[in-house]
Design a protein that fits this description.
The structure holds 2 protein chains of 2 kinds. By secondary structure, chain A is an all-alpha fold. Chain A has 2 domains: 4-85, Rna Polymerase Sigma Factor, Chain: A (Orthogonal Bundle); 113-192, Winged helix-like DNA-binding domain superfamily/Winged helix DNA-binding domain (Arc Repressor Mutant, subunit A, Orthogonal Bundle). In chain A, α2 packs across α4, α4 crosses α7 (148-155) and α6 (132-144) packs across α7. Helices cover 73% and strands 0% of the residues of chain A. Chain B is mostly beta strands. Chain B has a 7-stranded antiparallel beta sheet, with no helix packed on it. In chain B, a hairpin with a 5-residue loop joins β4 (134-140) and β5. The longest helix of chain B has 22 residues, at 69-90. Classes of the chains: A mainly alpha, B mainly beta.
Chain lengths: 193, 422
């Protein structure tokens, strides 16, 4: 959908146009904040802040075609700032119920539903190992589906830095999952001994 | 499928399942709240005209060329000689009084992430703070010997102070106040007042808006920042001349704006103007007269009619500067005139005598998208940095011709104040 016209109208103060723009993207942006922060309550605050900032600062957007990237940048920056300032607050992790009919499995490596839960937990733990900066890069690339230059643009970093940040993030996650598996294997062996 | 591709597919699937995007329950409330808020006008965004991200990227992309070892030795020796000469020269360096008219020194501005010193008398230009960090918004101390500025690196944003030759870099301990966008030196130059936008929210109707904190930090780098407990958003905080016994700021809470005073030691802020709902009331610039007796500010007096006001601090009486529409007042160093943007139809720099409401003089021809104005310390010129063009414009407040310079600056310059020759 061509966003230029509603963005232009919203920039000129048309609040209805702004409403239609943000309603179409707010769900995904809220998910982005929640994934980066792993804290639904804090993510809600961040989305609220970015939402207000988007309305107030929209006249400053130079290129209407970049509205999506600009709004993502607002959300990601607000999330990273919130992560940096986060006090010791309990983190509420939202568990997703498993529906085997819609879960296609994990690339064939694990077949049964118990295995799916194990893999899901392993990914959850591995994702928790990442820094907020790394999580932001991973979420933009692998959840939002941005290309690496777009990730770099939203994060305000050079493309090479985005590439290496993504690479290190995935390496960290894989190393964490490997370590997890070794611990489980040892526990299994000990139970047979 | 490689193991990496398989892992990425698993990750994407897990992220999609975990995210479960849904429209937030409070979206209708947020829409209702923002419908009541006015947007910031386009002219309030310097970044709209100056693509700061592009400047930042250019800075990061810049390559540094390693110096040959011999050259480093020569450079070190030269620096030592210059340093010794500087120490000898500054041992008895006379200093100007912190407020009032002073002799013009050089001015400093940020360009491409470096701090540039430029002598307006000769046009000589030199980089006084360079390097990979992105430095911005330099502000000279009252005595003209040091410069505070905002520094951004991969590690975040901080406030730094250097001597006027770029030496003796000190990074200040500002803690959470790390997005500093307004710096004001205390009259004795021992402390900096920092107001900064943060991710914390303050109440604004039923939602929160980004708060702007206010803190004081010692300029020698030896102490932590002390943050004020204001329970509102604070902007444009500035010390009262001549001795800094109070701090003025624009407070923003629950759709209401007012000017407040607070004791630098802390305590409760005291409103000194009516609380109003116009989003640009008391906005852009507020300022003390050099003697600390009066405050100039802008406040809407009718639809699209923003007027300049002067508040007598001792009596609490307010009076309009004149009948014209005006924005962004700034006092001349001697306190007798105020420069501002006359905004009846189009924006145009203007000057009026403080005590004569009929004295408005519009200066120069129309300058599109004009922005920050700065008086030279001697009060003889006004330097204007337009948003739409990188070159500084020098204006004669007496009505003489204006001059568009070849000096490129990303934002307003800050002038060094020097004592007059004995």
């Amino acid at each position: 959908m061509d966003q230029r016209e509603p963005v232009e109208r919203a920039r000129r103060g048309d609040h209805d146009a702004f409403g239609s723009l943000v309603t179409g993207s707010i769900a995904q942006l809220e998910a982005v904040a929640r994934l980066i922060l792993r804290d639904p309550e804090l993510a809600r605050d961040v989305v609220q802040e970015a939402f207000i900032r988007a309305w107030r600062d929209l006249p400053g957007l130079r290129d209407p075609d970049r509205f999506d990237a600009w709004f993502h940048r607002l959300i990601v920056n607000a999330s990273l700032d919130a992560a940096r300032r986060r006090r010791r607050r309990p983190i509420e992790v939202q568990l997703t119920p498993i529906d085997p009919s819609v879960s296609p499995g994990w690339g064939g490596s694990v077949a049964d539903s118990a295995g799916q839960i194990a893999d899901r937990d392993a990914l959850e733990r591995a994702f928790a190992f990442l820094s907020p900066d790394q999580r932001a890069a991973v979420v933009l690339r692998h959840y939002v589906g941005m290309r690496v230059p777009e990730v770099a643009d939203v994060l305000g970093i050079p493309v090479g830095t985005a590439q290496s940040r993504l690479h290190r993030a995935l390496e960290t996650m894989r190393a964490a999952i490997d370590a997890d598996e070794r611990v489980e294997l040892r526990a299994e062996r000990e139970s047979y001994a | 499928m490689t193991s990496t591709e398989r892992f990425e597919a698993q990750l994407e699937h897990w992220l999609a399942e975990t995210a479960q995007p849904s429209i937030p329950d409070d979206l209708p409330m947020l829409l209702a709240e923002t419908a009541r808020m006015r947007q910031r006008p386009a002219w309030a965004f310097p970044e709209r005209w100056i693509p700061m991200s592009e400047l930042t990227m250019r800075r990061w992309a810049a390559r540094t060329v390693p110096w040959p070892p011999g050259l480093i030795l020569v450079a070190l020796l030269a620096l030592l000689i210059v340093g010794l000469a500087f120490v000898a020269g500054t041992a008895h360096r006379p200093l100007p009084a912190p407020f009032g008219v002073a002799r013009n020194g050089f001015f400093v501005f940020a360009a491409d992430g470096d701090l540039i010193a430029l002598d307006p008398a000769t046009g000589a230009r030199r980089t006084i703070v360079g390097g990979p960090a992105f430095d911005d918004r330099p502000v000279f101390s009252h005595d003209g010997t040091r410069i505070a500025f905002k520094r951004t690196t991969d590690a975040g944003t901080s406030i730094a102070v250097v001597d006027d030759d770029g030496s003796d870099l000190v990074i200040l301990k500002v803690g959470d106040v790390d997005i500093s966008d307004h710096l004001d030196w205390s009259p004795d130059d021992q402390q900096l007042l920092v107001s900064a936008e943060t991710v914390d929210l303050v109440p604004y109707g039923r939602v929160g808006v980004p708060a702007r904190k206010m803190a004081i930090v010692p300029t020698d780098g030896r102490g932590e920042a002390r943050e004020f407990d204001l329970r509102m958003s604070a902007e444009m905080a500035t010390w009262r001349p001549p001795n800094g016994d109070a701090i003025l700021f624009r407070g923003d809470k629950d759709y209401g704006h007012a000017l407040y005073l607070i004791d630098p030691a802390g305590g409760e802020p005291r409103p000194i103007t009516p609380t109003t709902g116009g989003p640009y009331d008391y906005d852009l610039l507020i300022g003390w007269s050099p003697d600390g007796r009066s405050i100039a500010f802008q406040r809407e007096t009718g639809p699209d009619h923003m007027q300049l006001w002067i508040l007598d601090r001792d009596t609490g009486q307010e009076r309009p500067l004149n009948t014209h529409s005006g924005l962004a007042p700034i006092w001349s160093p001697d306190g007798t005139r105020i420069a501002y943007y006359s905004a009846d139809d189009v924006w145009q720099p203007a000057v009026a005598d403080v005590d004569d409401p009929t004295s408005e003089r519009r200066l120069a021809s129309l300058i599109p998208d004009g922005w920050t104005m700065t008086w030279t310390p001697d009060g003889q010129r006004i330097v204007l940095s337009p948003m739409a063009a990188p070159h500084l414009i020098v204006i004669d407040p007496a009505g003489g011709p204006s001059l568009t310079t070849h000096w490129e600056a990303s934002r307003a310059p800050s002038y060094q104040r020097l004592p007059f020759e004995p």
